[in-house]
C-alpha cells in the first residue's frame, strides 16, 4: 500500500510569497500611459458596452453611452476590443494616446451556443428549457477537493450538501428535488459526451461508517473548460433513464489549432483549520453523582462523563492514576485537531497545427487532513486531441489516468474509531494530551501496547489510538477515455460515432490492531473492487436552412451501455502474533466474492424547426431496453418550444430582449441487477460440505416496470437597461410514479420485503437568476448575481393507497429515538421522533419521579424535512485595473436537523443546558441524581435536539492581481496571475447549537441526521497561474 510520507518542500510557501512580492513591487516601476478613444460601427454610430481589455491582464474598460473609453496601458501592450455581434479586433498601443476603432459586424457572434444532451452544441435561443453553464474558473479559485461541492450556491435549483466526511469524501447534488423515494437521486455526470460512474464507495448510517468517496471527486478542476447543468427532464431526455435526476455535463480543456504552443502552470496552497462551534460547559469535571473522584476506580468509572463536582482547583485523581488540579484544562478541540493543508500543482501543454490541436496535463494533489495521521494524495494525467483527417472526417480523443490514495478517511457517526466522539465529550477537567500514552505508540499503554482508555467503557475510545494505531487505507486507479469520429457527407448531413470507457480498480485495507479495546486480539479486512462501464453511440444528423427563414435540425441514433463490477473480500480475526498485521497471521478467516453486470440498449431522435431564428419547436424521443427488467423497454418523449418575442414584436423601451419558453418531458429509471429473480449464495463450508442459501432478503418480482417521471416547465429570459440587467425565471412541476420500493412483509415468510412498483412523489418549484452589470467604467467594474431555488416536495402516496399517512423509514439515528422517513402527504425526508408530553398550557409533564415524559399517545411525529426547500447564492465580482475581488454568499432555509451530538452531550454532562439543577436539583430530582433527568431526555425525547437548520455562509472569497504584460514580456511570460483565496470563512446566520448546520453524515436520501461529524474547515490559500 502506498505510504503517505510526502510533504510540502521546505520553504516552498515562502518562495511563492517572495516571488509575488517581487512582481508586485516591480509593477510600480513600469511606465504606463492613459489611452482614450471612441468605438463606432461602420455606419458611424457610437457603440456603448464594448469591452476593451489590455491583453494578458485583468485591466480593461467598457465604453460609455457615447462609445468613449479611457484606460491605462504601457506602449508595448495590445488592446483587445470585443462586442457581441461584432468581430474582435486587436490594436498595438505603441506610443499612441488616442485610439479610435470601427468594429465590423459578425452575424455568427450574435448566437450564443451551449453544450446540451449528447454533447450537442445548440443555439441557446433554441432551448425551451433552463440550462446553467459555469466557467471552469469557478472551480479553481476557492477550490474544493471534490469539484461537485464547488456548485454550492452557484446554480438556482441545485441543492448541494457539504458532507462532513473529510478529504476524499463524497458530494450530494440534488437538482429540483428528490425524484425517487429510496433510490439514487443524484444527477448523471457526463465528461466530453461520455457518462461516468459516480457511485459512492462507502457511507455512514445508524451504526456509522466511512465515506470512501465517489466518482466525480477524482476529477481535476484545472482540466475543466465548462460545466453545464441540465436541470429538467426535457434537457436530459435524450440520455433516457440515467438522466431522471438531471445531468451535469463537463467539457474539458483542449488545445487550439491556431494558438501555437502554450505552457500553463497552476500552483495552489491552502491551509485548512477545523471550525470549532462547540460551546460546552466548563464548570464541572469528571466523576459521577456530583462528586469528585477520590480513587482510581472512581476516576475511571466517571472518566467518560462530566457529572462530577464543581471545578475548584484541588488535586483530584484521573484515569491514569495521576492527581491533577480539578480545573478547566483548556480547549481540547484545538489541541487535538491538526492544521491541515492541500498543495496542488498542475502543468498543461497545449497547441496544434492548422489541422490538429492537443492538450496534455498532469497534476498532483497532496492533502493532510485535520484529523491526525489522515490525508489524500491524487495524481491526474489527461490528454485531449482533436483535428481533421481530411475536409470531411474529424476526430476527438481524450483520456485520463487517475491514481488516488486515501489514508484513514474519518470514521463517521457511531463507527468505532470516530475520534470526534471522545474529543468533544471529554470532561473539561481532563486534558486530551494526557491520553497520548506511549510516545512511540500513541494512544497505547507503554507496558503492553493496549489501548489507553480514559474510562471504563470500551466505546469511549482513545482518539490517539484510533488515529495512529487503527488503519484504513485505500487506493484507486481509474481510466477515463473517449474517442469520436464525425464524417460530413455534405454541408447538411453528418454521421458521428463515439465510444467511451470508465474503468476503475479499488483496493482497501482496514486494520483493528492488537490491544484494541473492542477487539483485543485484533482483526483485518481486505477488499478489491473492479468496475468497468462502456458507452457507445452513433448518430446521423442533418441541418438545413431555407430562404423563407425556416431552418430544421434533426438526428437519429442508437446507443448501448454495459456495466460490470467484481468484488472480493477477506476477513481475518485474532492475530496469532500480536502487532504483526498480515492476513496469514490471523486465526479465524472468511471471505466472499460478488459480481454483477447490467446493460441498456437505446434508440433516440431529435427534430427541431425554427422560423427566422425567433420561433423554435423541438421534439425528442428515446427508448431504453433494460437488462435489469428482463429487456423491458420504455419510451421517453419530450417537446419544447421557445419564442424570442423581442425579435417578433416591439418591446417596451426598457426591455432589450425577451424569450418565452415552454417544455414537457418524461423520463424513467430502472433498478439494481437481480431483483427480478431469486438468487443464491455459497457460505462457509461445514465439515467440508459447501453451504448454500438464498442471497436476498426480499421477494423477487419478475413483473417490475421502470419508474416514470413527468415534468412540465415554463420560463422566460429577459434583458433590460441596455443588456446590463438579466433575468432568468422558471417554474416547474415534476411527478414521479411507479417507483420501485421494498414493501415490508411478514418475516414468517422468510423475507423482509417484496419489490413492487408503487408510490408517487411530486416536486413543484421556481428558479430565479438575476444578473447585474452594476458598474462598467474605464478602470472599475462591478458585476453581481443573485440566484434562488424553491422546491416544494410532497410524498403523494407510498405502498398502500388505503393507509393515510403511511410511512417509509430511510434511516434511524444512533440515539434510536429519531428517524428520517417519507410520510404520505408531507415533504420528502421528514425528521421524526417523540416529543414532550405537555399540559393544556404547554408545560412539560413529569412523572412521579420528577422526570420529563414523552407523548406516547402522539407517537413518532414529524418535525420537518431534513432537505432545505429554499436554496441560493449571491455573487459579487469587482475589478480595478489589474486587481479583482470576488465573493460568494450562499444560503439554505426551511430544513431541520436532529443532532445526535447534542443528545450525547446531554448524556455526558457537557451541554451547557445540563448546568441547570446541578446545585439545587430540578423539581423532585435531587442534585446528586440530576444526570438521570438529562439522560431521560436524551433517551426518549427527540424534540429537544431538533434544530432549525437555516444558514447563511460566506462560502468563497478571492482577491487577485494580474501581473502587467509589460513586465512579463521581459521574462518571456505571456500571462501571470496571483490570488488569495478563502472558503467557508464565516457562518453569518445559524440557530444550531455546537455543530455546523451542514453536519450530516451521509450522501444518501436520509438527510438531517448528525452524530459527531468531522468538523467543517475554514480554508485560506494562495493561487499562482502562469502561462508561457
TrEMBL record:
Residues 125-247 form the TonB-dependent receptor plug domain. It is found in: Cell outer membrane. GO terms for cellular component: cell outer membrane. Keywords: Cell outer membrane, Membrane, Transmembrane, Transmembrane beta strand, Transport. Its main location: membrane. It comes from the Bacteria. InterPro entries: Beta-barrel_TonB_sf, CarboxyPept-like_regulatory, Plug_dom, Plug_dom_sf, TonB-dep_OMP_SusC/RagA, TonB-dep_OMP_SusC/RagA_CS, TonB-dep_rcpt-like. Signal peptide: none annotated. PROSITE patterns: TONB_DEPENDENT_REC_3 (PS52016). It is a multi-pass membrane protein. Belongs to the TonB-dependent receptor family. This is TonB-linked SusC/RagA family outer membrane protein. It comes from Algoriphagus chordae. The lineage of its organism: Bacteria, Pseudomonadati, Bacteroidota, Cytophagia, Cytophagales.
Amino acid at each position: 500500500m502506498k505510504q503517505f510520507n510526502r510533504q510540502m518542500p521546505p520553504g516552498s510557501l515562502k518562495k511563492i510569497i517572495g516571488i509575488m512580492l517581487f512582481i508586485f513591487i516591480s509593477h510600480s516601476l513600469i511606465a504606463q500611459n492613459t489611452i482614450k478613444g471612441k468605438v463606432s460601427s461602420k455606419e458611424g454610430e457610437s457603440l456603448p458596452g464594448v469591452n476593451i481589455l489590455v491583453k494578458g491582464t485583468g485591466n480593461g474598460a467598457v465604453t460609455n453611452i457615447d462609445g468613449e473609453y479611457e484606460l491605462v496601458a504601457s506602449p508595448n501592450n495590445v488592446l483587445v476590443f470585443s462586442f457581441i455581434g461584432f468581430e474582435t479586433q486587436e490594436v498595438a498601443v505603441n506610443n499612441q494616446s488616442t485610439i479610435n476603432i470601427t468594429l465590423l459586424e459578425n452575424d455568427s457572434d450574435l448566437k450564443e451556443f451551449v453544450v446540451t444532451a449528447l454533447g450537442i452544441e445548440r443555439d441557446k435561443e433554441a432551448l425551451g428549457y433552463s440550462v446553467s453553464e459555469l466557467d471552469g474558473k469557478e472551480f479553481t479559485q476557492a477550490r474544493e477537493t471534490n469539484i461537485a461541492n464547488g456548485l454550492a450556491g452557484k446554480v438556482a435549483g441545485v441543492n448541494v450538501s457539504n458532507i462532513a466526511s473529510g478529504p476524499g469524501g463524497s458530494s450530494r447534488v440534488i437538482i429540483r428535488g428528490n425524484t425517487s423515494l429510496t433510490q439514487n437521486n443524484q444527477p448523471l455526470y457526463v465528461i466530453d459526451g461520455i457518462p461516468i460512474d459516480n457511485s459512492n464507495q462507502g457511507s455512514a448510517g445508524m451504526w456509522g461508517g466511512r465515506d470512501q468517496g465517489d466518482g466525480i471527486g477524482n476529477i481535476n478542476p484545472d482540466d475543466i473548460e465548462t460545466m453545464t447543468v441540465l436541470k429538467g427532464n426535457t434537457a436530459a431526455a435524450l440520455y433516457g433513464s440515467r438522466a431522471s435526476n438531471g445531468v451535469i455535463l463537463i467539457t474539458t480543456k483542449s488545445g487550439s489549432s491556431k494558438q501555437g504552443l502554450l505552457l500553463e502552470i497552476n500552483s495552489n496552497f491552502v491551509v485548512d483549520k477545523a471550525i470549532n462551534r462547540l460551546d460546552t460547559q466548563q464548570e464541572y469535571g469528571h466523576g459521577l453523582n456530583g462528586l469528585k473522584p477520590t480513587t482510581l476506580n472512581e476516576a475511571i468509572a466517571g472518566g467518560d462523563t462530566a457529572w462530577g463536582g464543581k471545578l475548584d482547583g484541588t488535586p483530584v485523581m484521573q484515569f491514569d492514576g495521576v492527581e491533577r488540579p480539578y480545573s478547566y484544562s483548556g480547549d481540547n478541540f484545538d489541541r487535538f485537531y491538526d492544521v491541515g493543508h492541500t498543495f496542488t500543482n498542475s502543468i498543461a501543454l497545449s497547441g496544434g497545427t492548422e489541422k490538429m490541436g492537443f492538450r496534455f496535463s498532469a497534476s498532483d494533489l497532496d492533502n493532510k487532513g485535520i484529523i491526525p495521521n489522515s490525508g489524500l494524495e491524487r495524481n491526474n494525467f489527461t490528454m485531449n486531441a482533436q483535428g481533421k483527417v481530411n475536409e470531411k472526417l474529424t476526430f476527438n480523443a481524450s483520456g485520463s489516468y487517475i491514481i488516488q490514495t486515501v489514508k484513514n478517511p474519518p470514521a463517521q457517526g457511531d463507527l468505532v474509531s470516530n475520534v470526534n466522539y471522545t474529543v468533544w465529550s471529554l470532561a473539561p477537567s481532563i486534558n486530551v494530551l494526557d491520553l497520548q500514552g506511549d510516545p512511540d505508540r500513541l494512544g497505547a499503554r507503554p507496558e503492553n501496547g493496549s489501548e489507553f482508555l480514559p474510562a471504563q467503557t470500551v466505546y469511549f475510545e482513545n482518539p490517539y489510538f484510533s488515529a495512529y494505531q487503527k488503519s484504513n487505507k485505500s487506493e484507486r486507479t481509474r481510466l477515463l477515455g473517449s474517442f469520436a469520429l464525425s464524417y460530413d457527407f455534405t454541408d447538411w448531413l453528418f454521421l458521428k460515432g463515439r465510444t467511451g470507457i470508465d474503468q476503475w480498480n479499488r483496493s482497501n485495507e482496514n486494520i483493528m490492531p492488537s490491544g484494541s479495546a473492542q477487539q483485543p486480539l485484533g482483526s483485518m479486512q481486505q477488499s478489491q473492487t473492479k468496475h468497468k462501464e462502456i458507452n457507445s453511440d452513433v448518430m446521423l444528423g442533418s441541418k438545413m436552412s431555407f430562404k423563407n427563414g425556416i431552418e430544421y435540425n434533426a438526428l437519429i441514433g442508437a446507443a448501448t451501455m454495459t456495466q460490470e463490477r467484481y468484488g472480493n473480500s477477506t476477513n481475518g480475526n485474532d492475530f496469532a502474533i500480536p502487532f504483526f498485521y498480515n492476513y496469514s497471521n490471523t486465526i479465524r478467516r472468511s471471505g466472499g466474492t460478488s459480481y454483477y453486470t447490467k446493460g441498456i440498449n437505446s434508440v433516440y431522435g431529435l427534430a427541431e424547426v425554427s422560423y427566422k431564428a425567433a420561433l423554435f419547436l423541438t421534439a425528442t424521443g428515446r427508448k431504453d431496453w433494460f437488462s435489469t427488467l428482463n429487456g423491458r423497454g420504455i419510451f421517453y418523449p419530450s417537446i419544447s418550444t421557445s419564442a424570442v418575442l423581442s425579435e417578433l414584436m416591439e418591446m417596451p423601451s426598457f426591455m432589450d430582449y425577451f424569450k418565452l419558453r415552454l417544455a414537457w418531458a418524461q423520463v424513467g429509471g430502472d433498478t439494481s441487477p437481480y431483483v427480478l429473480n431469486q438468487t443464491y449464495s455459497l457460505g462457509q463450508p461445514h465439515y467440508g460440505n459447501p453451504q448454500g442459501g438464498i442471497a436476498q432478503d426480499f421477494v423477487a418480482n419478475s413483473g417490475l416496470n421502470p419508474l416514470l417521471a413527468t415534468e412540465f416547465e415554463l420560463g422566460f429570459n429577459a434583458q433590460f437597461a441596455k443588456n446590463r440587467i438579466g433575468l432568468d425565471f422558471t417554474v416547474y412541476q415534476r411527478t414521479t410514479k411507479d417507483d420501485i420500493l421494498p414493501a415490508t412483509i411478514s418475516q414468517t415468510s422468510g423475507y423482509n420485503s417484496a419489490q413492487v412498483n408503487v408510490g408517487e412523489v411530486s416536486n413543484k418549484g421556481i428558479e430565479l437568476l438575476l444578473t447585474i452589470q452594476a458598474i462598467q467604467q474605464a478602470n472599475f467594474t462591478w458585476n453581481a448575481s443573485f440566484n434562488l431555488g424553491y422546491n416544494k416536495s410532497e410524498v403523494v402516496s407510498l405502498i398502500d393507497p388505503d393507509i393515510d399517512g403511511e410511512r417509509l423509514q430511510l434511516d434511524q439515528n444512533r440515539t434510536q429515538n429519531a428517524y428520517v422517513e417519507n410520510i404520505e402527504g408531507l415533504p420528502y425526508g421528514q425528521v421524526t421522533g417523540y416529543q414532550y408530553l405537555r399540559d393544556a398550557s404547554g408545560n412539560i409533564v413529569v412523572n412521579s419521579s420528577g422526570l420529563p415524559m414523552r407523548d406516547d399517545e402522539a407517537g413518532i411525529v414529524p418535525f420537518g424535512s431534513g432537505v432545505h426547500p429554499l436554496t441560493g447564492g449571491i455573487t459579487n465580482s469587482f475589478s480595478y485595473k489589474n486587481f479583482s475581488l470576488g465573493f460568494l454568499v450562499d444560503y439554505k432555509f426551511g430544513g431541520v436537523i436532529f443532532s445526535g451530538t447534542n443528545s450525547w452531550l446531554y448524556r455526558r454532562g457537557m451541554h451547557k443546558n445540563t448546568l441547570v439543577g446541578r446545585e439545587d436539583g430540578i423539581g423532585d430530582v435531587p442534585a446528586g441524581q440530576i444526570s438521570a433527568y438529562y439522560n431521560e431526555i436524551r433517551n426518549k425525547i427527540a424534540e429537544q435536539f431538533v434544530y432549525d437548520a437555516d444558514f447563511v455562509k460566506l462560502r468563497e472569497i478571492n482577491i487577485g492581481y494580474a501581473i502587467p504584460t509589460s513586465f512579463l514580456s521581459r521574462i518571456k511570460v505571456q500571462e501571470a496571475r496571483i490570488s488569495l483565496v478563502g472558503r467557508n470563512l464565516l457562518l453569518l446566520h445559524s440557530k444550531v447549537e455546537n455543530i455546523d448546520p451542514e453536519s450530516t453524515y451521509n450522501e444518501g436520501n436520509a438527510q438531517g441526521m448528525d452524530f459527531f461529524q468531522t468538523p467543517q474547515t475554514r480554508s485560506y490559500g494562495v493561487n499562482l497561474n502562469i502561462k508561457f
